[in-house]
Amino acid sequence: MSLPDRNNPYSFNAFLDWRENVDYYADDPFAQKVVRTFCGDMTDEVDAAARETSKKASFKWRKLSEALAWPEKRPYMKHYDGHRNRIDRIERPMETQIVEKEVFGEALFSKNTHPWVKLIKMFLMYQNGEYCVSCPLTCTEGLVAVIEPFADTPELKAILNHCKEGVDGEFAIGAQYLSEIQGGSDVPSNLVEAVEEDGVWKLYGTKFFCSAAHADYAMVTAKPKGSEKVGLFVMPSWLPGDKEKERRNSFTIDRIKWKMGTSELPTAELTLNGAVAYQVGPLDRGLANMVGVVLTYSRLTVGLSGASSMIRVWREAAKYCEFREAFGVNINFFPMVMGQLADMEKTAKRTLAGAFRLYKEVLDLPGGFLGASKDEDDAMKKKRFMVRELVMLQKICTSWDCPDVVRAAMSMFGGHGVMEDFSALPRLYRDAAVNELWEGPRNVLLTQMHRDLQKAAAWLPPRELVGNILAGRDEGLIKEFQDEIEQIFKHPNLFEMSPETIAVCKQWDSFCHRLYHAYQDQALEMVESRD
Question: Residues 518, 505: contact at Cβ < 8 Å?
Answer without folding.
Answer: no
